[in-house]
């Protein structure tokens, strides 16, 4: 009988800024996510404006902080996990989750990010959440920073461009790893660490309008260097505070194909993949790849890094590589006249051979297998798929049922390809957490109508609804997959 390896970690993944709510409760301070405004893209052209969907100015922040509005700032309410966590964790456990990937809101522990003493009420909240998980034998996999630096880090320190933020983050990591040493064994440092280049405010607290346009790309890479040092120090501190802990990096796995076999298109694909792998290369090998240093030199950039920085990065690489995978895309040396489409915070050329979701993300299960092979061959360390899922508009029938067969088909096809990567290709895969097992606010557009979950939450794009939870058809399907360790969908493989 075909099954996944014994001990495979099945589960689901969420982020505090997209589901937690309670943005002013329990002593929490505002984060960069609390000033992110709702958008409702009506066309592919609007969806392609990834930068426009995520860029924030000082004026935007001032406008946001002048109001307590939660309709047009929906991440302030999320799905109110802050008050529903016991119910939600019970529902997740009902599917047999072995692991639950979640994040800690930095500003719930340190409201401004720069305090010396943590917020005890915030610490107690996560104590309660972790205790609830462990009650069901569900291991927390915790992301330390997932798209929500405290707002003061952005407004008063210029985000991760400021070297002082390393010390603030290290203090935060020391506090949470000591506090939860007996409760959390799996940690990730920065969610999609590479994304600071695509949405610098959300990831790095960088307000682009404060910098000269021609210098901003260098600013992003300087901020990235500070995150690399902070990530290495987080590995060091976590291992000191929790000797048996495993600490991973987290990469946006953007998988590209050359649009044609023209050598120029193949070279473009290689260069694009290097632009993704340079972040995990640095965290896994503990040093900058030569091609990235060459880029700095050729652009005339002077990224400030000390000898001590480089020693720290080399001494404390990550234990495993985790990544998000939703779709693949094509690239060409010249994309004039080629149809463009969207992906996970990127735009790229549409692949004519594979279908697309309602939001333009192309559906490519084999691309996940290709990604696993690439990462396994490159790093020779354990891998963990920590985000994979289909955003779709669900229809609630008159009897309350939701027949999301499209979600089942998407997940089934991707899980099968994961199994082939393990069984046929020898990939060392620790586990799999689907993105958003319970509906939550989508990331870049801040919509509720783009739903991923096995669990439906009755709230719309404008925060209206009962917030009641109900199971979709996919809930029982995923429960059976976990119960059988994948055998229920691997019968014909």
Automatic annotation (TrEMBL):
Organism superkingdom: Bacteria
Question: Which GO terms of type biological process are on file?
Answer: carbohydrate catabolic process
Query: Does this entry carry the keyword Transmembrane?
Result: no
Where's the active site on this chain? 387 (nucleophile)
Which keywords does UniProt give here? Glycosidase, Hydrolase
Which InterPro entries does this entry report, sorted A to Z?
GH (IPR017853), GH_1_N_CS (IPR033132), Glyco_hydro_1 (IPR001360), Glyco_hydro_1_AS (IPR018120)
Offer one Pfam family short name for this entry: Glyco_hydro_1
Keyword match Metal-binding: no
Entry's Gene Ontology cellular component terms: cytosol
**One of the record's GO molecular function terms:** beta-glucosidase activity
Instruction: Quote the Gene3D superfamilies the UniProt record gives.
Output: Glycosidases
**Which family does the record assign?**
Belongs to the glycosyl hydrolase 1 family.
Q: What is the protein name for this chain?
A: 6-phospho-beta-glucosidase
